[in-house]
Structures are given as structure tokens and as C-alpha cells.
UniProtKB/TrEMBL annotation:
InterPro entries: AraC-bd (IPR003313), Homeodomain-like_sf (IPR009057), HTH_AraC (IPR018060), RmlC-like_jellyroll (IPR014710), RmlC_Cupin_sf (IPR011051). The keyword Transcription regulation applies. PROSITE patterns: HTH_ARAC_FAMILY_2. Pfam families: AraC_binding (PF02311), HTH_18 (PF12833). Keywords: DNA-binding, Transcription, Transcription regulation. This is Helix-turn-helix transcriptional regulator. Residues 273-294 are annotated as: Disordered. Residues 172-272 form the HTH araC/xylS-type domain.
């Protein structure tokens, strides 16, 4: 049974065996929720896989990029990704990552999210995740342990959704435009330019894009710019450099977009994320190297 914080090391074959062993253990575990802490190095990539449980994937430190056929989602510190059971996903680490995942049985409680989403992690949820990883895993819990896991489960539906998803349209032409934009994001791309490139009228394009992504092109572009900005800001790059590289005419324009999307300035947002990560790391204590999984 897994115990302690796990660190991923070794060659590809060894890690593949570790993944299979850990996933098999997870499939056989009992109880409504299982909490597993993991440490990953910068650049580590977990290939496509799926779980029979839903996953609350939480990054205490570092930035995680989750990819599915439905799009891409960024998970910075102080956030989590809700991945429903059965959804194939891969995970890429942008920087060293301290990950905490909670695996939840489908229908463990009423009101669990039905779709993929990035959520903010509250102080209460931080504390519950830290305490949950200290409990015996893979068994039915009673007493204090059962209360902790029960409250953790009931907090999941209350976590605030954040606009850090980047769903891709199903239309190949629209998806190709999105991929090109992600490679070179710019706030100046217009609806008319995209519609012309897709061979559609403006009205047909806007309707198709919204129907297939659930977002307007303007909102989608802003989220794509956040995707490009957050890892660089997390690495300590100056706000001015990031804003100008992304094509913003001024730093205030970039900050206005950032605050509108995430509710805080870039400096305040990253400071809050770092403070939250450091606080939980202090509560968690030193790492103990073992095996790991996502």
C-alpha cells in the first residue's frame, strides 16, 4: 500500500512498470477517496492514461499541463484539475512539481463536477489535502480519518471554477487555427481574420466556435495568452517582458486582462500561489522518496 510522498526517478521502462503497478493498486483500493502525494522533475511527461476513479489533480508547487482530446488545461500552484473517471489524459510538468492527487469513486457523493475543469483550492481544501495524505490509503476509514475524507469530498463541489481551460474545437480547420495561435499567441488576432482563414462568414464562424468550445473567440484568446504567460511568470520573468512578448501594446493592458480573467494582478496572483504552496509544504514536512503515479 502506498505511503509517504513519492518521487519519480528512473529510466522509461522502470517508470512504465511503476505506473502499471500503482494504477493496478489504485483500481483495487477501497473507500470513496484515496489521496496520493507525488514529486516530479521539470519536463516529466505522463503519457495518455485513464482511471476508473475521478481525479482531483492539485499542484502545490510548479505548473502542470493536462491534455485530453477535449483540449488543454493549465494547473498552476493553488489550483487543481478535476478529471472525471474514464477520461484519457496526459500530464506535463512545467518546472519541478509537488503534486497532490485525490482519486474519487464515481458518485461518491452527490454534486461532484461532471466535466473537466480547473478549480481554485481554498485554505480549507489545502488543509484537508495535507491531512488526507497522512491517513492510511486504500481502506475504509472511520473516526477522524473518515471525517477528514468525508469533508474533503463535500468540499469538491464548492471549489470555484477558474478560466484556465483551453478547449479545442472539433472542426479540423478551427482546431488548426487554435494550435497556431497557441504556438504564437497575440491579442491582436481578429474574428474576421480567423473566419477568412477557416473559409467561413463571420457569423458562421462565431457560432461554430462558440458551439464547439463553449467560449467566444475573445475569451478563448485571453485564456491562451494566460497559458503562455503563467509558466513564465512562475519562473520569475518580469511582467513587462512577458506582456510585450505576447504582443500587448502596454503592460497595463496585459495586467487588465490578467485581473479580469483571474481576479488579481500578475504579481499578486503569483505571490499568493507561492505563499500557499510554501505554507502547505511546511505543514507537509520533508519528502520521502518512493514510487509515483498521476
Amino acid at each position: 500500500m502506498p505511503h509517504g510522498r513519492e518521487v519519480f526517478k528512473g529510466d522509461a521502462a522502470e517508470l512504465g512498470r511503476l505506473h502499471q503497478s500503482r494504477w493496478q493498486w489504485l483500481e483495487e483500493a477501497v473507500g470513496p477517496a484515496v489521496a496520493l502525494p507525488t514529486e516530479y522533475p521539470d519536463g516529466y511527461h505522463v503519457p495518455l492514461h485513464r482511471h476508473s476513479r475521478s481525479q482531483l489533480l492539485h499542484a502545490l508547487v510548479g505548473v502542470v499541463l493536462v491534455t485530453t482530446k477535449h483540449g488543454r488545461w493549465m494547473v498552476p500552484p493553488d489550483h487543481a484539475m478535476w478529471i472525471p473517471a474514464g477520461i484519457e489524459h496526459s500530464v506535463e510538468m512545467l518546472g519541478d512539481v509537488s503534486m497532490r492527487s485525490v482519486y474519487v469513486m464515481p458518485n461518491a457523493i452527490a454534486g461532484l463536477p461532471e466535466g473537466l475543469r480547473v478549480v481554485g483550492i481554498t485554505e480549507l481544501m489545502h488543509s484537508l489535502i495535507v491531512e488526507s495524505e497522512k491517513l492510511p490509503q486504500g481502506a475504509e476509514l472511520e473516526g477522524r480519518g473518515g471525517l477528514i475524507m468525508g469533508l474533503l469530498l463535500h468540499e469538491i463541489p464548492n471549489l470555484p471554477e477558474r478560466p484556465l481551460g483551453l478547449p479545442f474545437p472539433s472542426d479540423p480547420k478551427l482546431a488548426a487555427l487554435c494550435r497556431r495561435f497557441v504556438a504564437e499567441p497575440s491579442p491582436h488576432a481578429t474574428i474576421d481574420e480567423w473566419a477568412d482563414a477557416a473559409g467561413m462568414s463571420r457569423r458562421t464562424f462565431t457560432r461554430a466556435f462558440h458551439r464547439q468550445t463553449g467560449l467566444s473567440l475573445s475569451t478563448w484568446r485571453q485564456q491562451a495568452c494566460l497559458f503562455a504567460a503563467l509558466p513564465r511568470l512562475a519562473d520569475g520573468e518580469p511582467i513587462t517582458r512577458v506582456a510585450l512578448d505576447l504582443g500587448y501594446d502596454s503592460v497595463p493592458a496585459f495586467i487588465t486582462m490578467f485581473k479580469r480573467m483571474l481576479g488579481a494582478s500578475p504579481r499578486g496572483y503569483m505571490r499568493g500561489a507561492r505563499d500557499a504552496g510554501e505554507g502547505v509544504r511546511r505543514l507537509s514536512g520533508p519528502a520521502r522518496p518512493e514510487n509515483a503515479m498521476v
